[in-house]
Write a structure and sequence with these properties.
- By secondary structure, the chain is mainly β.
- The protein is 2% helix and 52% strand.
- The chain has one helix and 43 strands.
Length: 549
Amino acid sequence: MNKRISAALCTMTAMAAVLAVPTAAQAADPYAKGFSTSAGDERVVVFFDTLERPKGLKVILRRKGGSAPVATLTSFTPHIKDEDICEPSCGDVLPHPLKAEVPRLPELGEYSVDVQYTGTMGETVLHKDRATLNYRVRPYFENLKAANGVSFTSRDTVVSGDIKAYDPRTGTAKPFTGAFTATTGTVTTPLTADAKGHFQSGLTVSGAAGSEEPGSATTDVRFTAALPGITKDALLGVPVTPVAAHIALDSPKLTGAFGTESKVSGTVTWKAPDGTWKPVPAGAAVGLGFHGGTGTTDGAGRFTALGRFAGDFVWEAESLTPWLDAEPATLSVDTTPGFTTSHLSAEIDSARKLTVRSWFTWGELPAGVTRLRMDVQTSADGKTGWTTRTDLGVTTRPGSDGADAAETTFSNPGTGFVRLRYAGSPDIHAPEPAALAIPRRTETAITDFNAAPEPVKKGKPITVSGKLTQAVPTWKPYTGGLVQYWFRATGATYWKSMGSSKSTAGGAFSRTFTARESGIWKARFVADTPDTTHFNSPYSREDEVLVTP
């Protein structure tokens, strides 16, 4: 096999963004694909993943279960953490979450967080219950310290600090007294704060876990304190002195198809002061870096991590814990031909056309393979009766690694499921077909259609009317649907668009025109933007009107 880095891995993120572009039907809400919201410590944070702040952005707080707003937040600043600060050499400017401070509220309890902004057409877009703010008297830790570092040969230290109880209604804090806990590894130790909220206690650090702070040569002690309705944590990083260690893999070689995963397992030992090698305690992380995930050791020093085949590389299993000083263990990997699919999506339009899209990545393809083809199949129940409707595929080059997107459109087969199934060379590993539900839209129809009066004198008004209905699931009137009117003059071979109107209460629609010439009238409902939930209706019945001099 050739040794090369797959181009697919370099372009996956960009292509995923292309596949996620909103359709025109979603244009009214500039963030129809969603945004994140969190709340805590008298603060609300929203993240829209854009450099441009949403117009008219507001956060509205309501008592949980209530409807009346109790506070509206309109002042936002970038929520930047230390790890988010970028040096000038970083290049691109990245979007940051926006934070808003919660004013003092008179009552403790839970508050619902609603987010509001202005849509692309100037309308108000309101997303309710995006998060819950737990507004309570809360404990917090200060001045956390460890008297000394630890190692496998010396696990004891002395931890100290202060705990206070903050009341958000007054903005004041008092000492927190009484019981709380400190946790390391899987061991939780009860501790007590004195009348001033201070504590100092001996602690034996357990396990072999590192820190939540990337790259830190410390192990975390998690302190936890609780007050009515709320619990708060704080981390203290205790310095760790590493010991000599060794990573032994169960096998030095691995073979698998491109895009598949395989377990990589082994044992991690450390050298004790007496020269013997002992299994490391539970919690030591071992990672495969760019080629896979991370595993942690159990009580016997055993670990298992998942690696993904992306070419003929040498994988390295390396220690990710500050407790150990170990050289990476290498694994020789032979990748055989294969491909993967991802970002499978199905979209149905108002004209009953189903569009299926997918992203392909491939590697190590044999000579003679110039296209990867997947049969597009549908089934009523997603389990049996699969029928091939069309195919979907990408052009490749023999022996190359690559990535590309493909799509195909065909007539809607009705409700059910769609999947992609490879029916090509057995020498190329293909993914198992996964079923995806076909999006559903509501059927519509026009009834009671009429053009009157009949006959009508030229220059006089003629009214075209009818009733628009929808199947939800039984047939009911549809209010607010856009109905288009069409006319074909007697002797003509083409239909002329005569404008549109919206159905009113009870599904009724009508529009008055000036009678010019004899001909046939008809109408149909069109699921126009931003309607993404209905099918276009069939044309109404045709009604011929005679226009007299």
